Amino acid sequence: MNKPPVTLTLSDIVCLSEKRRMILLLLGKKGHTIDEFTQKMNMTAHSLAPQLKTLRDEELIVLKDGVYELTNIGHILVKNMYPLFETIETLEKDHRYWFSRNLSVIPGDLMERVREIGNYKLLEYDISEYMFDVPAEFSDNFKKSKYAMCLLSVYHPIYTEM
What we know:
Number of strands: 2
Structural class: mainly alpha
Oligomer: single chain
């Protein structure tokens, strides 16, 4: 008895396979050959073949002269995938931290941009040790940074009038 074909939605295609998601995100930057995929994803061509076939069958990618590229619909999808998956990546990194905090005090426009935090390191210190000083690890890393965004809550006795 033949099984009916499985119908995948676009969200199934993107969310149910990390391999497909990685392929799409890589193609969002530039076209790739199968060798480039295997190198960047540390996988065999054999393990990638079913995912590439699914993406081709769903017309999200095309193969032109040995190079996989996004279709117009693929470009639209990937462009909108970046914000979602960057946000997920940011929140997953220290999920216990994020989910244990009251984030309602952060303005909505900043919360919508949480993905822009990108690669970060969570530094937590005992306030009794650093009541009036900035921890050296923070200062040292800040000096080395080429670009930094931060939101700090600092109390210092000389700023009592603020």
